[in-house]
Amino acid sequence: MMYCENCGTEISKEAYVCPKCGVKVKNDNTSEDTPNIGLNILSLFFPLVGIILYFTWKKDTPKKAKGVLTFALIGWAINIILTILF
Ligand SMILES: [Zn+2]
Fold first, then answer.
1. Is the pLDDT of residue 2 over 70?
2. Which of 23, 28, 45, 83 could share a disulfide with 6, CB 3.0–4.6 Å?
3. Cα–ligand 1 centroid distance for 84 (angstroms)
4. pTM of this prediction?
Protein backbone atom coordinates (compact mmCIF):
# COMPACT_ATOMS: atom_id res chain seq x y z
CA MET A 1 0.00 0.00 0.00
CA MET A 2 1.10 3.55 -0.66
CA TYR A 3 -0.23 7.00 0.08
CA CYS A 4 -0.93 10.04 -2.04
CA GLU A 5 1.74 12.68 -1.51
CA ASN A 6 -0.85 15.42 -1.86
CA CYS A 7 -3.82 14.37 0.30
CA GLY A 8 -2.58 11.26 2.10
CA THR A 9 -5.29 8.94 0.79
CA GLU A 10 -4.43 5.28 0.71
CA ILE A 11 -4.09 4.25 -2.92
CA SER A 12 -3.34 1.01 -4.69
CA LYS A 13 0.16 0.35 -5.96
CA GLU A 14 -1.10 0.14 -9.53
CA ALA A 15 -2.89 3.50 -9.36
CA TYR A 16 -1.66 6.10 -11.78
CA VAL A 17 -3.56 9.06 -10.33
CA CYS A 18 -5.01 9.58 -6.85
CA PRO A 19 -8.75 8.74 -6.92
CA LYS A 20 -9.51 11.46 -4.38
CA CYS A 21 -7.61 14.53 -5.51
CA GLY A 22 -6.53 13.49 -9.01
CA VAL A 23 -2.85 14.22 -8.45
CA LYS A 24 -0.50 12.08 -10.49
CA VAL A 25 1.05 9.37 -8.35
CA LYS A 26 4.81 9.13 -8.41
CA ASN A 27 4.92 5.52 -9.45
CA ASP A 28 7.15 4.51 -12.31
CA ASN A 29 6.64 0.83 -13.05
CA THR A 30 9.94 0.58 -14.89
CA SER A 31 11.87 1.22 -11.68
CA GLU A 32 9.54 -0.47 -9.23
CA ASP A 33 11.33 -1.12 -5.97
CA THR A 34 10.14 -4.63 -5.19
CA PRO A 35 12.26 -7.78 -5.05
CA ASN A 36 12.26 -9.71 -8.30
CA ILE A 37 11.90 -13.48 -7.69
CA GLY A 38 13.34 -14.52 -11.05
CA LEU A 39 16.42 -12.38 -10.63
CA ASN A 40 16.78 -13.46 -7.01
CA ILE A 41 16.95 -17.09 -8.15
CA LEU A 42 19.39 -16.12 -10.90
CA SER A 43 21.57 -14.49 -8.25
CA LEU A 44 21.40 -17.65 -6.18
CA PHE A 45 22.97 -19.65 -9.01
CA PHE A 46 25.20 -16.87 -10.30
CA PRO A 47 26.25 -14.79 -7.27
CA LEU A 48 28.42 -12.51 -9.40
CA VAL A 49 25.34 -11.45 -11.41
CA GLY A 50 23.56 -10.61 -8.15
CA ILE A 51 26.45 -8.52 -6.90
CA ILE A 52 26.63 -6.59 -10.19
CA LEU A 53 22.85 -6.01 -10.09
CA TYR A 54 23.13 -4.86 -6.49
CA PHE A 55 25.60 -2.12 -7.36
CA THR A 56 23.52 -1.17 -10.40
CA TRP A 57 20.28 -0.88 -8.42
CA LYS A 58 21.25 0.17 -4.92
CA LYS A 59 20.75 3.88 -5.64
CA ASP A 60 17.35 3.78 -7.37
CA THR A 61 15.74 0.61 -6.06
CA PRO A 62 17.40 -0.31 -2.73
CA LYS A 63 14.86 -3.02 -1.80
CA LYS A 64 15.28 -4.82 -5.11
CA ALA A 65 19.06 -4.43 -4.80
CA LYS A 66 19.07 -5.85 -1.28
CA GLY A 67 16.99 -8.82 -2.47
CA VAL A 68 19.46 -9.87 -5.16
CA LEU A 69 22.41 -9.26 -2.82
CA THR A 70 20.88 -11.52 -0.15
CA PHE A 71 20.36 -14.32 -2.66
CA ALA A 72 23.82 -13.79 -4.15
CA LEU A 73 25.34 -14.21 -0.69
CA ILE A 74 23.27 -17.35 -0.04
CA GLY A 75 24.37 -18.75 -3.40
CA TRP A 76 27.97 -17.85 -2.62
CA ALA A 77 27.74 -19.57 0.79
CA ILE A 78 26.27 -22.70 -0.83
CA ASN A 79 29.16 -22.68 -3.33
CA ILE A 80 31.71 -22.54 -0.50
CA ILE A 81 29.99 -25.34 1.42
CA LEU A 82 29.89 -27.53 -1.70
CA THR A 83 33.55 -26.78 -2.41
CA ILE A 84 34.51 -27.82 1.13
CA LEU A 85 32.37 -30.99 1.03
CA PHE A 86 33.56 -32.24 -2.33
ZN1 LIG B 1 -4.61 12.58 -3.30
1. yes
2. 23
3. 56
4. 0.60
How many A from CA of 8 to the centre of ligand 1? 6
User: What whole-number distance in Å separates Cα of residue 10 and Cα of residue 4?
Assistant: 7
64 Cα–ligand 1 center, Å: 26
Q: Where are the domains of the chain?
A: 1-30, 33-86
Residue 69: is it exposed, middle or buried by C-beta count within 10 angstroms (0-12/13-18/19+)? buried
Q: Please tell me the distance between residue 28's alpha carbon and the centre of ligand 1 in angstroms.
A: 17
Quote the pLDDT of residue 28. Answer: 55
CA distance 32 to 2: 13
